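--- STAGE predict ---
source: upstream dedup step, 1 unique chain passed
mode: sequence only
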Amino acid sequence: MLPNPPRALAAGHELLEKTFWEAELAARSCDREGLRDTWSRLEKLLLAHVAAEEEFLFPALGLADAVEAEALREEHVSLRKQFCELGVGVDLHLVGSPLVGQFIADLRRHAERENSLAFPWAERNLPRDVQSALARALRADPATGH
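--- STAGE serialize ---
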């Protein structure tokens, strides 16, 4: 079966959002250990996901649409910054703050942008070996690399 970058990338976005909400639930229920574990998993997932996009998708997309590729890169920078700020909030038990809602809204907007343009483009234009590498990177468990 050929890899399906749009499906793999969209599934990655769904997993990120689900894991984020698990962290928020742990915070609201004052489960410090659960929050710490979930936040750590979320960090690994987020960093692995954006790294895969930046390594395999954005360079090729940049050749076809440099403006869009750069805009997506800039959104990644913003998402990483917000995530870092939220990490401080986790340490201070402020996960329920307005920063959470803003981060989720920005993550959703970014996912919608990628889902509507970058992912379909990847399916049509990325060479099969790059599609395979991208799909493998997205399926890998960042904790184990498998």
